[in-house]
Write a structure and sequence with these properties.
It is a single chain. This protein has 10 helices and 12 strands. By secondary structure, it is of the alpha+beta class. Helix 1 runs antiparallel to helix 5. The protein is globular and about 65 Å long. Bound molecules: fe (ii) ion. The site of fe (ii) ion has 4 residues, from helix 6.
Length: about 425
């Protein structure tokens, strides 16, 4: 059998990218203490230390053990501890109990990372690898690690939000955030609809759930030129949005009742006792009285900042209140480059009204990676666009994120659409 060989430039470029992405994970964990890195605040969220180990396990299990001759696992027990959901790779430690793993220590997880990093770099620098096999696995592993980099941030933010002191992940650098201002008027951008092409088309990496590119029928509609901002959302709250069942989907209203939702996940009302507990020291009172807890600690809510940490249910209720609806993922993708549209990427993930379903002709990735996306295609909604916590360059217009409708610990917000 003839092996496909990389050029030295291609192998070197992938090695450098590997080092860059792996270092970025450690940089994200650097502001956190060992205690911070061990905590798990809910079953959906994982400890920082677990993210650092699991992304390493992925390279060890999917790349090194099958494809690096003579590779010696760092600790075979880690196969059980740091498998996430891959049934084909055997049993695993229960997800809700990840926060109970005080051992291995953070230092041992760092040693595990170094062990695997050295083996991956050695593999990429040796001449005898089958590039057609190795390159897609390394690229998938790096994109996987970038997904966990965002989860590392959203999970630690949730954990820190459970501490009455509301400690900052790290202090804000640069100028202070602007105080509330009058939100600019939203404009509607009319889209005539018709048959549009959606899905990943160009060269370069995509996840399997973005393919195949295909045609979709989009009805005439209008899409908002910007995201819904905190000023908009404060009006929804002030108008009794969380007390009016007619605005909510049935499951959403049940979630409001069961969880006592009255505002986005990390908003604090002016009478919240935590505001006097050190969390908002020095923060000026803003016009609406709302504060919000974020990665830089407690700050006054900015009226013109995109509203974030919303569930799908809240996004849908807001849209109903506004006399509009959420866009479908196809409307969103078709409008990506529309003249006048803004905030399509890198602010908050945007809930769509589209169920997370396979595209026509969908086929999962081969091998172990078949479990990566396809088996989660039920009971979830698609989000588009990426957030402030998404690593630079990680997303594309065709990128599909997905969460259950009640999830609200991500940087998730919305953009409006309406029928014409
Ligand atoms: Fe994972």
């Amino acid at each position: 059998m003839t092996l496909s060989r990389p050029t030295p430039q291609a192998a070197g470029a992938l090695r450098d990218k590997f080092r860059e992405v792996r270092a970025a994970s450690l940089a994200l964990a650097a502001p956190l203490s060992a205690e911070d890195q061990c905590i798990q605040s809910m079953p959906d969220a994982s400890p920082t230390k677990w993210h650092l180990a699991h992304t390493t396990w992925f390279f060890e299990t999917v790349l090194l053990e099958p494809h690096a001759t003579g590779y010696r696992p760092f600790d075979v027990r880690f196969h059980y501890l740091f498998n996430s959901y891959y049934e084909a790779l055997g049993p695993r430690h229960p997800r809700p109990q990840r926060g109970l793993l005080t051992r291995p220590s953070v230092d041992e997880v760092h040693a595990y990372r170094r062990h695997v990093d050295e083996a991956v770099v050695a593999l990429l620098e040796q001449g005898g690898i089958d590039w057609a096999v190795v390159e897609p696995i390394v690229t998938l592993g790096l994109n996987h690690e970038q997904q966990h980099q965002e989860l590392l941030l959203t999970d630690i933010l949730h954990a820190l939000s459970c501490n009455p002191m509301l400690p900052a992940y790290k202090p804000a650098s640069g100028p202070a955030l602007r105080l509330a201002s009058v939100p600019p008027a939203m404009r509607w951008i009319a889209q005539e609809g018709g048959v549009v092409e959606v899905g990943h088309a160009s060269e370069g990496f995509s996840f399997d759930n973005e393919t195949p590119r295909h045609r979709a029928l989009v009805q005439p509609h209008a899409i908002a030129d910007r995201l819904v901002n905190c000023g908009d959302y404060a009006q929804f709250i002030a108008d009794g949005g969380y007390q009016r069942p007619e605005l909510w989907l049935s499951d959403g209203w049940a979630a409001v009742q069961a969880n006592g939702w009255r505002h986005p996940a990390y908003w604090l009302a002016s009478d919240d006792p935590r505001l006097g507990f050190g969390g908002a020291s020095g923060a000026a009172q803003n016009a609406s009285g709302w504060h919000v807890f974020g990665l830089h600690g407690v700050r006054p809510v900015e009226a013109d900042a995109p509203v974030s940490q919303l569930s799908f249910y809240e996004a849908a209720a807001y849209a109903e209140w506004a006399g509009a609806r959420l866009p479908t993922e196809f409307e969103w993708e078709a409008a990506y480059d529309a003249p006048g549209i803004s905030q399509m990427a890198g602010h908050v993930w945007q809930w769509t009204r589209s169920s997370y379903d396979p595209y026509p002709g969908f086929r999962p990735m081969p091998g172990i990676a078949a479990e990566y996306n396809g088996k989660f295609m039920v009971g979830q909604l698609v989000l588009r666009g990426g957030s402030v916590a998404t690593p630079a360059g990680h997303t594309r217009p065709s990128y599909r994120n997905f969460f259950p409708p009640a999830a609200r610990w991500q940087f998730s917000g919305l953009r409006l659409a309406k029928d014409l």
